[in-house]
Design a protein that fits this description.
alpha/beta; 31% helix; 239 residues; globular
Length: 239
């Protein structure tokens, strides 16, 4: 009976929910050496998405394969980045992270904030060490940009992170045809209204790369201005 229970508990981690693995990065987890686990599938269809093959694709690698890889990286890597796609969509994500944490790795998740219930569980159970929250746009442009109606879920996730003691960052991909300068200023005001303080990272859209939708080129004129406030420091990241 115990043997059967053990096999039942392990079986879900054999599900192929992962698209690919980046075995090493110094850029994606602040101040840590890490690998990146790319989860297949997403509940948004952001027009500027750089990972259409991941968002529209299906998983190729099961959780057990990744866990076996991590066993060989103990003492070599500090952390694991769970990205995608949208990692919080996968119903076995909590079990997966528990296994990763048991090996001693720090865990960072990249999320669009669309699953606050899972995020809240991860926060309450101390299963994550850092979060990168994608702030797509304001409500009036959110549906067009993401092809989803999930702004209220994002807002709930933002509030959860602000109220928690989990280190996190808010970041936006900026495309000059999708977000106006006036809207960008209002996005910063919105963060202030939500009582967010700290660094707000903005990365310019990279022209001439495959994306989910065909877009005009984006310019970087917005970077010529200082949008920082007394509470929020706006930092333009180079990609």
């Amino acid at each position: 009976m115990n043997t059967n229970n053990a096999s039942i508990s392990k079986k879900p981690l054999s599900i192929k929910g992962i698209f690919s693995l980046t075995p090493f990065t110094l850029l994606d987890y602040p101040h840590k050496t890490a690998c990146i686990v790319w989860f297949a599938g997403c509940n948004m269809r952001c027009l500027y998405c750089y990972n259409p093959e991941i968002v529209l694709g299906k998983g190729k690698i099961d959780f057990e394969t990744i866990l076996n890889f991590l066993k060989t990286r103990k003492g070599l890597l500090d952390g694991v980045v769970l990205s995608g796609g949208e990692c919080t969509l996968h119903h076995k994500i909590i079990d997966f992270i528990k296994e990763i944490k048991a090996m001693g790795f720090a865990v960072k998740i990249d999320t669009n904030g669309s699953n606050p219930k899972i995020l809240n569980s991860l926060i309450r159970n101390r299963l994550i060490d850092y979060v990168a929250l994608d702030y797509k746009s304001l409500p009036h442009t959110f549906k067009k940009l993401t092809q989803s109606g999930l702004f209220s879920e994002f807002e709930e996730s933002l509030k959860l992170l602000i109220q928690s003691d989990i280190p996190f960052e808010v970041r936006t991909t900026f495309h000059s045809s999708l977000i106006s300068e006036d809207d960008f200023s209002k996005m910063i005001e919105y963060l202030e209204i939500q009582n967010f303080e700290g660094n707000y990272y903005v990365q310019h859209f990279m022209n001439n790369v495959p994306t989910l939708s065909k877009l005009d080129s984006s310019n970087k004129e917005i970077q010529l201005k200082d949008f920082s406030t007394s509470k929020i420091k706006v930092i333009f990241r180079e990609q």
